[in-house]
Amino acid sequence: MAVGSRKLAIAAFCPDSFFILLSTPCRSINTTEVLSPALLTWFSLGILNKDRYRAMLDVYGTLDEALARLSPDVLQALGCRSDTIEKTLVRIEEFNAPQYAKELQKRGVDIVALDDPLYPARLFEIGDPPVFLSYRGDLLILEQPSIAVVGTRQMTAYGKRVTEEFVPEFVRAGLVTVSGLALGIDAVVAEETLRANGKTVAVLGHGLGSIYPPSNARLANRIVEQGGLLLSEFPLEMPPDKFTFPARNRIIAGLTLGTVVTEAPEGSGAIITAELALEYSRDVFAVPGHIFDDNYAGCHKMIMRSQAKLAQSATHVLRDLGIVASEQPESTYEPTSNEEKILYGLLSSMPQPTDDLVAKSKLNPGTVAATLTMLEISGAARNVGGGSWVRG
To answer: Pairing between strand 132-137 and 146-151?
Structure first.
């Protein structure tokens, strides 16, 4: 059912509220202490996709009002199946919002909603972004340039070696790595990122109430401890199943500038992620392997069909993405003024024109120009031509 049809169908059951088109977004969320009971309830139900969410807000104005008006008829108008309707109504009756909030807080889990200013900008651009994201760690690292590195669980020694070669170079170039925390390539991506003192994002195919596989639980904790992020669209207690992992893949593809497949057979989750990245107009790269190796059949097929660019090295990937890697060792620069702090925080390995830095920093052009010059003198910034700047 189309969004407009859903609005009309819902309005038929609540004519008094059809013209309340407040379009009130969920308030900015940074801690479980400010999560409303209605938002927690909707998150725990796990039934809102983007279209349903928009329809509910257009008709009711807020999630609180939408929850108060929820009924079997409204759920049916949203397109929910009869078994989903029954489970949803039982869940609402049993749900204890204060207890759920305490559980989130105990586990260090926060939630951000689709219209929140903290919602990841690149993910917001895709056609079907998740309405809610639960997370542990630093959500703000998603504002930095990032790259997905994905592959098979049954990796070979060659696939492992390729991943170990690529990831540190991505980290040195200032990229945040994104993967899925599964066995095999995913785990190597996280391990190598941490070893290189980088930041990594693990997108999970289940709720953050547990880690799957359990053998990666310690790795998950290290990711958070070292400034990274665990991310999931699923309710806290949601277990993994055959549907949750494909859904997870669209988040990996949607968060990043591009996706690199370091080893994948045909039809694998890594190939699904790469295909989704193509749908989102993101760059896709695939590493070639032995022509007789089925573990590389997916990579070879994407290269052969010109769906993926052949990735012979991390340098080729970075150059294609327009990433300017620093030629200097990692900077120990400390800002000496508030203006330097603001601009240095905005700079990354992705070239940005001076005008963009003026707009983002909200500083006047003269101050930005003078501050960038001081940063360049100190080695903290680099003019890469055309009036564009990167970190030094």
So the answer is: unpaired
Query: 323 falls in which pLDDT band (50, 70, 90)?
Result: confident
CA distance 254 to 130: 10
Q: What sign has the CA pseudo-torsion 277, 279, 285, 287?
A: positive
How many whole angstroms from its chain centre is CA 242? 20
Distance CA 201, CA 183 (A): 15
Torsions phi, psi of 278, nearest 5? -60, -40
DSSP state of 313: -
For the record, the structure tokens of 150 come out as 């994905």
- High-pLDDT (> 70) share of the chain, %: 89
Q: What are phi and psi of 155, to 5 degrees?
A: -75, 155
- Give the separation between CA 85 and CA 82, rounded to whole angstroms: 5
Whether the CB-CB separation of 154 and 184 falls below 8 Å is answered with: yes
Q: List beta partners, residue 286.
A: 261, 310
The b-or-e profile of 185-208 (16+ CB within 10 A means b, else e) is bbbbbbbbbbebebbbbbbbbbbb
pTM over 0.90: no
Q: Are 163 and 270 in contact (CB under 8 A)?
A: no
* pLDDT tens digits for range 116-134: 999 999 999 999 999 999 9
The residue with tokens 């990735």 is 311
Task: Report which of 48, 102, 109 is spatially closest to residue 231, judged by C-alpha positions.
Answer: 109
pLDDT tens digits for 181-229?
999 999 999 999 999 999 999 999 999 999 999 999 999 999 999 999 9
In terms of pLDDT, which residue wins out, 4 or 69?
Answer: 69
What CA–CA distance (Å, rounded) separates 372 from 374?
Answer: 5
Residue 11 is predicted with a pLDDT of 44
Q: Are strands 283-286 and 352-353 parallel, antiparallel or unpaired?
A: unpaired
Whether the CB-CB separation of 159 and 263 falls below 8 Å is answered with: yes
Beta strands in the chain (DSSP E): 110-113, 132-137, 146-151, 176-179, 200-203, 229-232, 258-263, 283-286, 309-310, 352-353, 381-385, 388-391
CA-nearest of 100, 109, 101, 127 to 34 is 101
Euclidean distance between CA atoms 271 and 292, whole angstroms: 18
DSSP β-bridge partners for residue 180: none
